[in-house]
Specification:
Length: 406
């Protein structure tokens, strides 16, 4: 795919994704300090509030997916993107912990619903063989947008004033609203009718798909490994200088931006996607071993081990993402893409909730045994994906009825 896709749905999705990512970068970069220094919340209150909000967000995926299937995903995506924009602006009114929990929960619910609807929109607006490549391209665009937003938010952090923080929050709101407006340039996707009397909530009876969502959730915890375990490991257990964390983040961002599309090739069918996730587990195991071995080494040895482990980790991350898109789309019936995306997304949200505590306790707290344990867990999950994907393929005719356009 070229730097900018041809005019049509993908180009409109690109512009909307880029603008939304800038807004997300503006908000995420300043949010914790805003809550702490401007609102006056404690570290514990911020952590507890975000955990509660993440749990509330779990309830959004399946209903948003089902609604997307019934009325079309574009309208659902635009509605929740607009609602999320208004709710982000409501952070400016927060003065205490209760208000913070309420607003954060509503924001997280809206963002989770928007994410599910957007995935369903790609599934309906983009031809089947192109879906994974488009998702990979949009992920690269998202990384670039986050970087731009983070740079802009750095100005607010430099001034460290409430008006500066509020400017970033309202900037996020403006970006979200602009992104929602750009989505009107994506052609609407008509719902697909079920044929026969199959279950309305087909995904809840699809056991192999649920197992694949669970295995993907395990592999998805690699994000927590990078966001929580590696920075704490570098700072507390290795001789590497603190700026190494920023270097590793740069390596990750650049690699994802440059290689996500390339490494997603061949994952547009269930078998190829399953092989990608199997390779992901292998890469993540070796990455865990290398990162663990950085402890107690001279600076240059630690740096080499950390860089090598980070590169292997990002390859595992890229393959995990590509495999997840291929499996989640290819095994979903046309009339239920939304609810299937909702279930798959719920698994990833559970990983996001569990990762901070698990990574800091098991990986950083236990040291080498913790790293090895998680490496083996990643490997086991990756190796299990192909046979479960074959099981899912065998059950498609019986589990999912044939469909026809509405």
């Amino acid at each position: 795919m070229s730097l900018l896709p041809e005019s049509g749905p993908v180009r409109a999705l690109t512009y909307a994704t880029f603008l939304r990512a800038i807004g997300r970068g503006l908000f995420i970069t300043v949010s914790v300090l805003f809550f702490k220094l401007s609102v006056g919340l404690s570290d514990g209150e911020i952590g507890l509030g975000m955990t509660i909000a993440a749990a509330v967000g779990l309830a959004a995926g399946l209903p948003a997916g089902r609604l997307s299937d019934l009325i079309g995903p574009r309208g659902v995506q635009i509605a929740f993107s607009s609602a999320g924009a208004v709710l982000v602006a409501a952070y400016a009114l927060v003065t205490d912990f209760t208000g913070f929990v309420v607003v954060a929960s509503l924001v997280t619910f809206a963002e989770a619903a928007e994410s599910t609807a957007r995935a369903a929109l790609v599934g309906g607006a983009v031809p089947g063989p192109e879906r994974v490549r488009v998702r990979a391209y949009l992920r690269a665009v998202t990384n670039v947008g986050w970087s731009f937003g983070g740079i802009g938010a750095g100005l607010a952090l430099g001034f460290d004033t409430r008006p500066g923080y509020l400017a970033m929050i309202f900037g996020c709101t403006a970006c979200y609203l602009g992104s929602a407006a750009l989505m009107f340039r994506v052609p609407p996707v008509a719902p697909v009718a079920r044929r026969g009397d199959g279950p309305a909530w087909a995904v809840l009876r699809d056991r192999p798909y649920a197992v694949l969502a669970l295995l993907n959730a395990v592999l998805f915890m690699q994000g927590g490994l990078f966001n929580y375990a590696i920075p704490l490991w570098v700072a507390g257990r290795t001789s590497a200088p603190p700026w190494t964390v920023a270097l590793l983040a740069l390596v990750n961002t650049v690699t994802v931006t440059l290689l996500q599309v390339r490494l997603s090739r061949g994952t547009d069918d269930a078998a190829g996607a399953a092989r990608a996730q199997r390779r992901s587990g292998m890469f993540l195991l070796v990455a865990c071993v290398l990162l663990a071995l950085a402890a107690g080494q001279p600076v240059w040895v630690a740096m080499v081990a950390l860089l090598g482990g980070t590169l292997l980790h990002v390859f595992g991350e890229l393959l995990q993402a590509a495999g997840s898109w291929g499996l989640s789309y290819e095994l979903a019936p046309p009339h239920a893409i939304g609810q299937y995306q909702g279930l798959y997304g719920m698994g990833q949200q559970v990983s996001n909730i569990a990762a901070p505590a698990v990574m800091t306790t098991v990986v950083v707290g236990w040291g080498l045994p913790g790293w090895i344990l998680f490496g083996l867990l990643f490997l086991a999950a990756g190796l299990a994906v192909p046979p479960v994907a074959r099981w899912a393929g065998r059950t498609r005719p019986a589990t999912v009825p044939e469909t026809q356009p509405a």
